[in-house]
Amino acid sequence: xxxxxxxxxxxxxxxxxxxxxxxxxxxxxxxxxxxxxxxxxxxxxxxxxxxxxxxxxxxxxxxxxxxxxxxxxxxxxxxxxxxxxxxxxxxxxxxxxxxxxxxxxxxxxxxxxxxxxxxxxxxxxxxxxxxxxxxxxxxxxxxxxxxxxxxxxxxxxxxxxxxxxxxxxxxxxxxxxxxxxxxxxxxxxxxxxxxxxxxxxxxxxxxxxxxxxxxxxxxxxxxxxxxxxxxxxxxxxxxxxxxxxxxxxxxxxxxxxxxxxxxxxxxxxxxxxxxxxxxxxxxxxxxxxxxxxxxxxxxxxxxxxxxxxxxxxxxxxxxxxxxxxxxxxxxxxxxxxxxxxxxxxxxxxxxxxxxxxxxxxxxxxxxxxxxxxxxxxxxxxxxxxxxxxxxxxxxxxxxxxxxxxxxxxxxxxxxxxxxxxxxxxxxxxxxxxxxxxxxxxxxxxxxxxxxxxxxxxxxxxxxxxxxx
Length: 468
Fold this sequence. Notes:
Elements: H1 2-28, H2 30-34, H3 37-46, E1 55-57, E2 69-73, E3 79-84, H4 90-113, E4 131-136, E5 144-151, E6 160-167, H5 175-191, H6 197-211, H7 218-226, H8 240-253, H9 258-266, E7 281-283, H10 288-298, H11 303-313, H12 320-323, H13 329-332, E8 344-347, E9 353-355, E10 366-372, E11 381-388, E12 393-401, E13 407-412, E14 420-426, E15 433-441, E16 461-467
Parallel strand pairs: 3-4, 4-6, 8-10
Antiparallel strand pairs: 1-7, 2-3, 5-6, 9-16, 10-15, 11-14, 11-16, 12-13, 12-15
Helix pairs in contact: 4-5, 5-6, 6-8, 7-8
């Protein structure tokens, strides 16, 4: 009886308020009712709304590992580690299982300390409703991964039921950081299943990096810097490697801790797709790129300028001479192997030079050409001509470097969709080297990259460098 009374008392005010609203509109629009205005408004009010923006496919359930395993449970926390049953060395397996459980507990605590909502529970998929981490062969997961059971049917806002995966062959020294990375990936995919995988991986990696700076995977940094032409945070999950560096630099430029910066982005993307789009689709907008662009506009910054700055900044990495001049802590902390390659190394005595055989750039990708000035009579000016393919917008930037490799000034052409640009570069007395950076930008100034659609956005360009 008490339940019935609570439900009745909870509905009554709603019924009264709706009745009052209808009566008020009837009274205020008496003449309009004759024209059918009230009927039209009523039909609009009760008709389900339809989302007209971009949609993405809802996550398909990914089968959980089926190999024979032993479940190890945390005491007092809804956390479970599923370890494969070893054929030999049971003592080492038990020690590793205990280490893995402690790492999962630490990741759970760190995730809450960073201000995020709780890790997702799965409705009993792993044996009960707790959060599950599976230790699996390298073929299933190279280091830290996550999986999805599909959408969470009990949530009003879009959400998914997820779990974490960890490679069985990880060295003991990597278990803690990789466990946090796997938990973060699973929690982010659960919070907003419409976001692109590259954003999930990059955000989780950045959070792990802040928690433990030594956890930066040098191999991932090498991949990110070794292929700057591939762009960042697009539909290719591998673009997450460069995306981590981009987000780290942006958090520094905006004056935020990386965890707080990334959390502020993700908190603004949650949305409701139920009854607005087909059941197998999710609303794809606003996504993280759109939120980031609006965040920059609120601080009177342009996304183009930030991307061009990153294209230049990532040059100052790798060898000591370059890394010593880095403007951002996150880039200065990269290993000495993480440097962007030069598409061409020139000397002013070799000019003019017509450069054709550079890698095609994907959206937000960059290419680098370095010109060493001859001594003792360097030229007074360089002239640069860029000719790119039609479609995107092109940015051409020249950075003057002194004898120590420090930036002594830079000049850029405005980002433009016309395929040709000309840039004269006056050389000051302290200039010893000129770094030329070509960056591919979105097609329109109002566009943001679309990480949900796998398009071939590669475009070629030619560069002419002359001196006088």
